[in-house]
Model the fold of this input.
Amino acid sequence: MNQEIYSFNLKDAIKSLKSFPKVFKLLWSVRKLHLILITIFYIINGILPAISILTTQSLLNAIQTSRGKDFIYVLYPLIIYLSLNSFGYIISQLNSYLQSIFRIDLNYKMSVMILEKARTLSLSDFENSEVYDKLRRAQSEAVERPYAVFSIVLSIVSQFLGLISSLAILLYWKPWIILLVIIMPIISTIYMAKMGHMQYKIEYERSQEKRKSWYLSYLMTNDIAFKEIKIYRLGDYLIKGYKKLNKNFIKQDKKIIKKTTIASFIFEVLDQIVGGFILYLIIQSAYIGEILLGNTVAYIRSLSNIKGNMQGLLGSVSAIYQNNLYIKQLFDFLEMPVKEEKSSISIEEIKTIEFINVSFKYPNRQEYALKDISFKIKKGENLSLVGENGSGKSTLVKLLSGFYDNYEGEILINGISMRQINQENLGNKIGIIFQDFNKYELTCRENIALGNIDLINQDDKLQAAINKAHANEMVNSLPNGIETQLGVWFSEGVQLSGGQWQRIALSRAFLRDADCYILDEPSASLDPVSEHEIFQKTSDLTKDKISIFISHRLYNLRKISSKVLVLKEGKLIEQGTHEELMDLNGHYKYLYNLQNTIDLVDDIESIA
Ligand SMILES: Nc1ncnc2c1ncn2[C@@H]1O[C@H](COP(=O)(O)OP(=O)(O)OP(=O)(O)O)[C@@H](O)[C@H]1O
Done:
C-alpha cells in the first residue's frame, strides 16, 4: 500500500497543492467566464467585511461626534453603510447561483470522463481488483472533489484578504494583540488536519470492504440473484455479512467523530478564554475614553473576523490536503495509461487463422490456461473446440478476440501477426456470442442492433439477422414486436427464456457482416434440438467463412466440423476430423462415447 498516506506534515500538504494546476485546467475546460466571475466574487468577499467594519466605525463615530451639527454628517456614512450591505448581499447571491450552475456542469463532465476512461480499460483491467477499486473510488468519492479544491483555494485567498484587512484594523490599536489572536486557531487546525488525514486513511483502507458491502446490498436489491437467494434462503446470511462490515465502518466513524468533537470542545473553550481577555481590554479602553464607540465596535468585530478567518484559513489548508488525496485517486484513475493502438495493419477479410505455440497465463494466475497451442484454420472451415470444463476453450476464443495480448507464441491472421493488426478492424470482422452473453434491459431492436449500431434503423438488415438466428417467430410473438422492451427492469418489459435471449444474442452476432463467427457453448440455454438447428444453420450461413463452435454436445458438432480441437488442461491433445479422432481411439472418442451413453441413459429413464 502507498506509504505516503500514512504520514501528514506541512510538506505533504504543500506537495498536495501540486494537483491544483490540473484541477484548474479541468475546471477551466468546463466554463471559463463563470470561473473568472466566481474568482472575482471570492476576492470581493474577502475584503468586504473589513470595509464594512470601517463604514460601521465611521457611521458610529459620526453619530457620536456630530451632535449639534448638520445631519448630513451622519447621512453620508449611513448611505455608504447601506449600499455596501446591499452590494455584499447581491454579490453573495450571484456567487452562489454561479457556483451551483458550475457544479452541475462539472459533475456531468466528470461522470462522462470517468465513463470514457472506463471504456478504454481492457478486460484484464476489469479483472484486476486494484483497478476496479480505483474506478469505484473515482466514481463515488472524487467527482465532487475538483470543485471542492478550487473553492477551498479561493476561500484561502478570500480568508487571507479578510484576515490581513481585519488584522490591519487591530494593528492600528495594539499590535501585540495579534499574536494572542492567531495562536489558538493554529494549534487547533494542525490537530484537525491530522484527524482529517486519519479519516482518509481509514476510507482508503476500507475501500475493498466497502465494495464488498455494496456488492452484498446489490445482490439483495437486484433481480440477478433473487431466485437463488430465495431458494437457498441466503437473505439472513447476506444481511449478516452486510451488518458485520457496516458495524465496523460505523464503529470507526463514531470513534473519529468522538475524538474530533472532544478536541473541538477543548480548543473552543481555550479560544473563548483568549477572546474574552481581548474583549475585556477593548471594553476597558472604551470605558476610560481611550477609544470612541465606533472604534470599539470595529475592534470587537475585527476580533471575531480574525478568529473566523484564521480558523477558516487553516481549516481550508487541511481540507485542501485531504481533498487532494481524493483527487489524486481521481487523476490516478483518469491518467491510467491507455493501451495505445500501435497495430496499424488493416485486413480486408479473415482468410486464415493460425496459432503457433501459443501459451497464456491469466495475470493473476500461476498456471497456464493454454499451453503450446498450434493449429490452423482456413476460410470455409468449421472448427470445433471440445474438452472438459476449464480445459481452455473460452480462453482460446478470448485470445482470438484480442482481449489479451500478453500471450506467448504467435497468432497469425492471413499470415500476419495479430499484434500488428488494428484491433478495431479485426473486431469488426468477428461475430461472437460469449458463454455469458449480455441480456440488455433495452428494446428488442436495440438488443439486436448493438451488434452493429449503425444499422439500428435499417429494418431489412435487422430482419435478415433475425431470420438467420431463427428468431423470427419469437420476435413476432412479442407484444410490440421488435420495439418490445426486454427484461424486467423497466416498465412493460417482457422477460425471455434463456434460449430466447440466446437467439437475440445470435441475431446480434449475425447483424455483423463478419468473416468469422464464434459460438461459445450455446448449449447452456438451448435444448439439444435447437442447438443442433443453430449450429447447422450457422454452418450453412458461413460456408465461405470461418466458424468456431464450442459445445459439450459432441454429436451436434460431429457433422458440421471440418476440424475438431480437443483440449485438456490447457493443452491441445488431439486434432482432426470427427472420423479421424474416432479412429484415434483417444480422449475425443472417450468423451463422445461417454456423452452418448449418458444421453442413452437419459432417454431410457425418460421413457421409463
Ligand atoms: N478471468 C480469469 N482469470 C483467471 N483465470 C481464469 C479466468 N477465466 C478462466 N480462467 C481459468 O482458465 C482456465 C480455462 O478456463 P476456460 O474458461 O477457458 O475453460 P473452458 O474450457 O471454456 O471451460 P468451460 O467448459 O467450463 O466453459 C480455468 O482454469 C479457469 O479457472
Q: What stands out?
A: The chain is about 65% helix and 10% strand.
